[in-house]
Amino acid sequence: MPTYNKLVRDKIPAVIERTGKAYTTRILDNEEYIEALRVKSQEELNEYLEAATNESALEELADLLEIIHALANYHGADIQDVERIRQEKADKRGGFMEKVFLIDVED
Q1: Which of these, 77, 49, 52, 82, lies nearest to 65 by C-alpha position?
Q2: What is the DSSP letter of 81?
Q3: Which of 31, 39, 64, 76 would you label with 53, given CA atoms 20 to 30 Å apart?
Q4: Handedness of CA 8, 4, 75, 66 (dihedral sign)
Q5: Where are the bilayer-spanning segments (predicted)?
Q6: What pTM was estimated for this model as a whole?
């Protein structure tokens, strides 16, 4: 039996159950949960970085976005709050769409 020891999406146990396989889960406490979300975000970011096609890249971005939703909720906010903050920062400092790459700044 493979051992995973990782955070999975909420409906994964039901998916496994439909295959007739036995599984073991537990509910994490808040400290374990935030750590597992951080680990999962790194895992999904690595999968995005390794994506070979636009389709797989978008799949991994969707996974990252799901994690961002969960992280926002953990921190007492929702995705609209995150989007508002993102927009404020974009209004003040810009985004990343113009592909500006800073080389150096003179002292």
Answers
A1: 82
A2: H
A3: 39
A4: negative
A5: none
A6: 0.89
- Give the separation between CA 44 and CA 82, rounded to whole angstroms: 19
Fold classification of 12-93 (topology level): Helix Hairpins (1.10.287)
The DSSP code for 9 is -
What residue type is assigned to position 56 of the chain?
Answer: S
| Token pair of 95 as six digits | 């985004």
**Residues 6 or more apart whose Cβ sits within 8 Å of residue 94:** 100
